[in-house]
Specification:
287 residues; alpha/beta; Rossmann fold; Hypothetical Protein, Haloacid Dehalogenase-like Hydrolase, Chain: A, domain 2; eight-stranded mixed β-sheet; six-stranded mixed β-sheet; globular
């Protein structure tokens, strides 16, 4: 039975979780896209206590490194690009890469561009290089894409380098008509996951989801999702939240996320993740 989501309510744990999976934007990061000191310290304590932490995000590796820092990134396992990339760090292990076939990716991009010629399209690769139809000058690259000039490619060049995710947006309005069109045409081969209230689309291989990539990383330690705590705020987190044993929405989460979550914590601006992690650490020490 789901808990009341109108106020903060937190789980009481009889034993520590086998792992913690945390979305980044709108969840672990505040509205200024920074990692607060309180959240940072809570992550540190969980990691020091031997609890694996998995950052699960739509972002590529280059921006995760910039936002959370090299130390946290190297100690956490990673589910990147909505599950297209998985990187296990001890005690987890493994490297997962779910690609979109070149010709399929080209057909998707052509279809999107025919519907909305001005839309911004990005092709993500291994997590650092990317292709785009709206290239940035060097002064903007780091701020907008967490990238250096050598990482920025043309769409055509990126199509030949094993694309893993296609992102579309930048029109400052809903693009559900694009989601519907490409889902209808290519839905057997791809997943189309909207975010930011349907103003942005994440397109990956059908086999790439946060849930499945998290599960595959946990398999390296014979751990299931049953005793995993997951945090999220937006539609791309729903599959992961639904699959994990304990799911927690931050207070700023969209209604669809609050509907599937077991519990609710404070908002991302009020260190909602840290509030739960501190409770986990306190309960672990009292056992």
């Amino acid at each position: 039975m789901k808990q009341n989501k109108t106020a903060v309510n937190l789980p009481t744990l009889r034993h520590p979780p086998d792992a913690i999976a945390i979305d980044l934007d709108g969840t672990l990061l505040n509205n200024e896209s920074t990692l607060s000191e309180r959240n940072f310290k809570a992550l540190e304590k969980c990691l020091a206590g031997g609890i694996p932490v998995v950052i699960a995000t739509s972002r590529p590796a280059r921006s995760v490194r910039r936002l959370v820092g090299t130390e946290i990134m190297s100690r956490c396992s990673l589910v990147l690009q909505n599950g297209a990339i998985g990187i296990g760090n001890p005690p987890l292990s493994g490297h997962i890469k779910e690609k979109i076939a070149t010709e399929l990716a080209r057909d998707i991009i052509t279809t999107i561009s025919e519907i909305e010629p001005e839309i911004r399209i990005t092709i993500e690769l291994e997590g650092y290089g990317f292709g785009t139809n709206h290239p940035r000058n060097p002064d903007e690259l780091w701020e907008v894409n967490s990238a250096t000039p050598d990482m920025q490619l043309s769409l055509e060049k990126a199509l030949t380098d094993e694309p893993t995710k296609i992102a579309a947006g930048g029109l400052n309005r809903k693009i559900s008509h694009i989601a519907n069109a490409i889902s209808k045409r290519f839905g057997n081969d791809i997943s189309v996951v909207p975010s930011n209230e349907m103003t942005f689309l994440n397109i990956t291989s059908k086999t790439a989801t946060k849930q499945d990539t998290l599960r595959r990383l946990l398999d390296s330690q014979n751990t299931s999702l049953d005793n995993v705590i997951a945090f999220g705020d937006d539609v791309p987190d729903i599959d992961m939240l639904s699959a994990c044993g304990i799911s927690i929405a931050v207070a700023n989460a969209v209604p669809e996320v609050k509907e599937v979550a077991d519990y609710c914590t404070a908002s991302n601006d009020d260190d909602g993740v840290a509030i739960v992690l501190e409770r986990i650490i306190e309960q672990s020490h009292s056992q």
